[in-house]
Write a structure and sequence with these properties.
- The chain has about 280 residues and is an all-beta fold.
- Helix content is about 0%, strand content about 50%.
- The chain is elongated, with a radius of gyration of 20 Å.
C-alpha cells in the first residue's frame, strides 16, 4: 500500500541509471530515472520512503520506511527492508526469476526473465494489481539496452576504494556521452561527446577514491593531482547529479564538485583542504 499525493521537492538525489537488475538494491537517496528528464524518478528517499516523482513533484509514497529497496532475483518482487525485515513490497511474484525494475515513459515496470510484466506503477502514482502472464509490448517503451553505454564507461558511480585507469570513465546516467575519468594518456577530464569541458594538466596511471573522501591521481608511485578536499565523515561515492560530478561523504554531503560545463571545481564550503596539484579549465 501507499498514498498518492502531489508535492514539490528540491532535495538532492542520485540517479542509479534507468533500471536495476536482480539482487540489486537502492539505498536512501538513490533512484532509477527517466534518461530524458531525471525529474521523473522512482526510488528511496533520504528518510527511507519509497517514492515516485513526476516532473519533480512527489506523486506517490509508501507509508512505511526502510533502509534498502531490494529487487529479488528469486521472486521478481520489489521489497523495502529495514535491517533485513520486510516493511513493504510490490506484492507480486513470478514463476520466472526477476530480470529488472525499470523507469519507462508510462511509469515503473517490473519484468521477469521471460519478459513478462509482473507489476507496474503509472507515472501518476497508481500501482497495478499483479499482472497475468503477458509480454511487455508497450510500443513507447524503449528498453534501456537500446541506449548503449559507451565502451569505456565503467559505470555510473565510483565507490570508496575503486579505481579508474587510463581510458576509463564514469558516465552520466541521463546522458552517457557526458563522462568523467582518465584519458588514454592518464589525464583527468570531463567530456561531453568529443568536447573537452575540463581537464587537469597532469598525467597518471590511476584515479583512486579514498575512504576519507579524497580523489587522487597517482603516477610513478607519486601523487600527481588531487581534489584537495576531505569529508567530515568517510567517503561514500562519486556520482553525477544534474550533470555535475559530485564527491560525496557517508552522510551524502558534498565534498568536491565539478560543474556540469567544466567552468569550475572546488571544495564544498565547510570541508578541509589538503595538499595536491592544480586544475585547469577550458
Amino acid at each position: 500500500y501507499g498514498k498518492t499525493q502531489t508535492m514539490n521537492r528540491a532535495n538532492p538525489f542520485l540517479c542509479a541509471g534507468r533500471a536495476i537488475g536482480p539482487d540489486r538494491h537502492l539505498e536512501p537517496h538513490e533512484f532509477i530515472c527517466d534518461p530524458a528528464d531525471n525529474g521523473n524518478r522512482f526510488g528511496l528517499s533520504d528518510n527511507g520512503f519509497v517514492e515516485l516523482y513526476h516532473g519533480n513533484s512527489l506523486v506517490w509514497q509508501t507509508e512505511e520506511t526502510g533502509n534498502q529497496l531490494f529487487f529479488s532475483y528469486d521472486t521478481a518482487e520489489l521489497i523495502l527492508r529495514e535491517e533485513g525485515e520486510t516493511k513493504w513490497s510490490s506484492g507480486c511474484t513470478s514463476d520466472a526469476v526477476g530480470k529488472k525494475v525499470k523507469y519507462t515513459p508510462s511509469g515503473v515496470k517490473i519484468i521477469d526473465l521471460s519478459d513478462n510484466l509482473v507489476w507496474t506503477m503509472s507515472h501518476d502514482g497508481y500501482p497495478s494489481t499483479c499482472f497475468p502472464v503477458g509480454k511487455d509490448q508497450d510500443d513507447d517503451d524503449m528498453d534501456e539496452d537500446e541506449v548503449a553505454m559507451p565502451e569505456n564507461c565503467k559505470g555510473y558511480s565510483l565507490k570508496v576504494g575503486e579505481i579508474l585507469g587510463p581510458n576509463e570513465f564514469l558516465c552520466d546516467p541521463n546522458d552517457p556521452n557526458v563522462k568523467f575519468g582518465l584519458s588514454f594518456v592518464g589525464m583527468p577530464q570531463l567530456l561531453r561527446g568529443d568536447q573537452l569541458l575540463w581537464f587537469v594538466p597532469a598525467r597518471g596511471e590511476k584515479l583512486v577514491y579514498h575512504n576519507d573522501g579524497h580523489l587522487v591521481l597517482y603516477g610513478e608511485g607519486q601523487v600527481k593531482w588531487s581534489t584537495k578536499c576531505y569529508g567530515k565523515s568517510r567517503g561514500r561515492q562519486i556520482d553525477f547529479m544534474q550533470g555535475s560530478v559530485n564527491v560525496l561523504d557517508e552522510d551524502w554531503a558534498l565534498i568536491w564538485k565539478l560543474d556540469a560545463d567544466g567552468s569550475g571545481s572546488e571544495c564544498y564550503p565547510g570541508f578541509a583542504a589538503g595538499s595536491g596539484g592544480t586544475t585547469s579549465g577550458i
